[in-house]
Write a structure and sequence with these properties.
The protein is α/β, with parallel strands linked by helices and about 350 residues long. It is about 40% helix and about 15% strand. It is built from 13 helices and twelve strands.
Length: about 350
């Protein structure tokens, strides 16, 4: 169904307001990380302050193994929120991705809502467009415009089939996308990454990605924001909300699926991650970075200092988790640091 520029911006405003002010989490499904607990090393031979929390991703050196995941843009409020997030990202040394830039490609007057490079000149910054738009007239030119718009270091294409099919004005033609993504990988002069949007990645999907020269992947699993709930709220279709709100592969399942099929692909794990011990768990399961979205969006809505405080707590919790396991560097966390059988407060909250 064709969508006007005005409709796209209105949809972005609706998404943002629902994400900030409504319960849009999964009904019962969790991120799966609560079923794991850490193996205790009672003789860590470490001082907590000496633990190294740095990471490397796509050739970039980060002070924290965290990506502020794609969230918002295209609305006036998004300008403030993205600015607050970018300022703190620059301070703590993490990566950041912006929300879908389709609104700005359709309405150049909202480009400023995405532009944050001046506030964070050195962080890895990623553009974002929907992969399905490749079947609706988008291609190399639109991807390059999105990258150039924000002076990005690469671009995420997001896979959101459930969201699109539940969206009243959704684009649902997902045919032949793999071949188009393959062509983009060869034609774009910057890194191309794929991401999901809260329904995760199964082994079936991971196998379809074999052979694609992707720069990386963000496996956003079930347990965080349910876009099925958001779209059902927008369309006032409560029966869909109850039926589809909990669908998806959990974050833990998604990381394990990707690592079993694509052991060397740079991987971000996201979906319901809100605490430093959950960051440590996804790193131990095999992710390179942890992606965090809605908790930081809500913090940014409250203020810039709230974002700083959120990162302070995340950092402390991550450091304590490493100390508990006797790991002096987050990159040393491995699956053997976890056991099945949770004893922590790690959930999908």
């Amino acid at each position: 169904m064709p969508m006007s520029d005005r409709d796209t911006s209105a949809r972005k405003r609706s998404h943002l307001q629902l994400s900030l002010h409504e319960d849009v989490g999964f009904l019962q499904r969790t991120n799966g990380l609560g079923r794991f607990s850490f193996v205790h090393d009672a003789l860590p031979e470490l001082h907590p302050e000496e633990i190294d929390l740095s990471a490397e991703f796509l050739g970039f050196d980060l002070d924290l193994p965290i990506l502020i995941s794609s969230m918002t843009g295209g609305t006036e409020e998004a300008t403030v929120l993205n600015a607050r997030l970018a300022k703190v990202a620059a301070e703590v040394g993490c990566a950041m991705a912006v929300g879908s830039q389709r609104a700005a490609l359709e309405s150049p007057e909202v480009e400023e809502t995405y532009r944050i490079r001046d506030l964070a000149p050195e962080i890895p910054l990623f553009a974002n467009l929907g992969a399905v738009q490749l079947n609706y007239g988008y291609g190399v030119d639109q991807c390059l415009r999105a990258v150039e718009m924000i002076e990005a270091d690469g671009i995420f294409l997001h896979l959101n089939s459930l969201q699109e099919v539940l969206q009243p004005e959704g684009n649902v033609d997902f045919r032949n996308l793999r071949e188009q993504i393959l062509a983009l990988c060869h034609d774009l002069p910057c890194p191309l990454l794929l991401k999901t949007t809260g329904n995760g990645i199964s082994r079936r999907t991971a196998r379809k990605l074999v052979g694609l020269p992707l720069a990386g992947l963000e496996a956003s699993g079930a347990g965080g924001t349910s876009w099925a709930r958001i779209e059902s709220m927008r369309g006032e279709r409560d029966h869909y909300r109850a039926r589809f709100a909990d669908w998806g592969e959990s974050t833990a399942e998604s990381v394990q699926a990707v690592r079993s099929v694509l052991p060397d692909l740079p991987l971000v794990a996201s979906g319901g991650i809100a605490h430093g011990d959950e960051v440590a768990k996804v790193l131990a399961l095999g992710a390179d970075l942890a992606g965090i979205a809605r908790p930081l969006l809500q913090a940014a809505h409250r203020g810039e200092d709230e974002v700083r405080e959120a990162f302070r707590i995340l950092t402390d919790e991550l450091r304590i988790s490493c100390f508990y396991c006797g790991r002096g560097w987050v990159g040393d966390l491995v699956v053997e640091d976890l056991r099945e059988g949770g004893n922590s407060a790690s959930t999908a909250e």
